[in-house]
Amino acid sequence: MKNLNVVQLNGLRAVEAVGRLGSLQAAAEELGVTIGAVSQQVIKAETQLGRSIFERTPRGLRPSRAGEPFLRKLNAGFRELSEAVGSVRHRDDTILVISVAPIFASRWLIHRIHQFSARHPEISLRIESTTTLADLAGSDVDLGIRIGPGNWPGVRAEFVLPQEMFPVCTPELAQKLRTPADLVDMPAVIDANDQFTWDRWLKAANLDQPPPKTRHMFSDASLCLDAALAGQGVLLAWPILASWALEEGRLVAPFDIRVKTGMGYYFVTAPDVREPKKVTLFKAWMRQAIAESMADHTDGSPTPLP
């Protein structure tokens, strides 16, 4: 215990974050500091502890044999500390704090939250747009909305909507598309970070042909949608990303083929915590709003394939 007493809390936080997230970069993003600062904190903590918690490999840091049990206990300790802080923090029943991915916030939620406010004027929303899964037990975040496999540790995940991919384009470009085979002659807008490729969609369409030719590639799905709206090509989109543009008629889905990616949207909440009424009300409203937004562009929109 003597060594633990002299280890600074910031150093332990850095060690815990690196161990939990698996990289210096991810830990730096969560802690809001530079990668170099995290690295220095880890080195300093290891020096104070008198042993290495991580092994340095070509692929980055990984827990050492001595580090693995230490990191498990450290993670549990920080979680208990966060829960203790959260248990005494005053929560305002009139303010609902939601942590949500930027794409969901900007392309779906922002267009519809006035509907929730009209139905529940007594509740104000505070939207935290981030790609990081919030610490639901130890922060003032009431509800997270996330896309993924739904198996995140330490949270309760409730399935909302599957992610399904389908082509969208402007009505002008759609006039050139009579069958899916016509896509071979069309320019495509590509999301550089999307793991779902045109090959999978073409296979579902029973087509053995090259994908559309890449015209532009972006590292952000929101920019991809803007490019599609500008008529720069056909985009493989999903309902949450494109629903507002489809409802307004600025984009169309020319073919009735939709392919599931294996991912989904989930409500994420702290485990073993009684759900506040404001969260229940928002979840009920959002389920209804999603159902309505999907129904608004049923005609001419994709229908799911198994």
UniProtKB/TrEMBL annotation:
Family matches, as SUPFAM superfamilies: Periplasmic binding protein-like II (SSF53850), Winged helix' DNA-binding domain (SSF46785)
One Pfam entry name: LysR_substrate
Keyword Transcription attached: yes
The organism's place on the tree of life at top rank: Bacteria
Keyword terms of this UniProt record: DNA-binding, Transcription, Transcription regulation
InterPro entries, per database record: LysR-type_TF_proteobact-type, LysR_HTH_N, LysR_subst-bd, WH-like_DNA-bd_sf, WH_DNA-bd_sf
Limits of the HTH lysR-type domain: 7-64
UniProt xrefs under PANTHER family: HTH-TYPE TRANSCRIPTIONAL REGULATOR, HTH-TYPE TRANSCRIPTIONAL REGULATOR TRPI
Protein family according to the UniProt entry: Belongs to the LysR transcriptional regulatory family.
Name this polypeptide is given: LysR family transcriptional regulator
